[in-house]
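Exercise (ungraded).
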Amino acid sequence: DTAVSQTPKYLVTQMGNDKSIKCEQNLGHDTMYWYKQDSKKFLKIMFSYNNKELIINETVPNRFSPKSPDKAHLNLHINSLELGDSAVYFCASSQVLAGELFFGEGSRLTVL
Amino acid sequence: AQSVTQLGSHVSVSEGALVLLRCNYSSSVPPYLFWYVQYPNQGLQLLLKYTTGATLVKGINGFEAEFKKSETSFHLTKPSAHMSDAAEYFCAVSEKTSYDKVIFGPGTSLSVIP
């Protein structure tokens, strides 16, 4: 039974389109995150939610909008996709803030 | 704000040789330190972590790391490399502040030569 699951695993889309990535965790954690990994493998935190409340919002374009309907789910919607949005997006969760992170397998987004 | 540097974006070792991956951090308060491993096309998984207490931390797959406050380092070692250790390794730091977050280093790609 997968602890942190993301869908879809792959997305290929055209510039200007809108896409969403969904994440679910069954670990009972209160905190969930979105990280972006670029082509050089560099990982950067984008957002963090604690018990459905947004607590970290890094300098991410407004085109990115996270949403947490409940503490087990965290979705990421991206509007007006740009070439530079191509990356692997990882969802993660933790039991305590800034503690051990449990990662999903990633969603590879390719913008053409 | 905290930050992490990893010396060497790519490290190659022979099978059976010592693995040493370097990590230095910057933090204004006592840090929590982590090493994660990422295998190809997978998410990251925790190898080991330091929060408080013993400065030599043992993790999974025979890895260990030592927290050295005076050197602001948290280097990862393994006495004998296996082919299965080939992966990307990330050092990470967090600190208890109002906005807790885990910051990752740029990663070190480990190759193991038969």
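Further reading is listed at the end of the chapter. For now, observe: The interface with chain B takes residues 4, 35, 40-45, 48, 55-56, 90, 92, 97-101, 103-106 of chain A (CB under 8 Å). Chain A has a mean pLDDT of 93.
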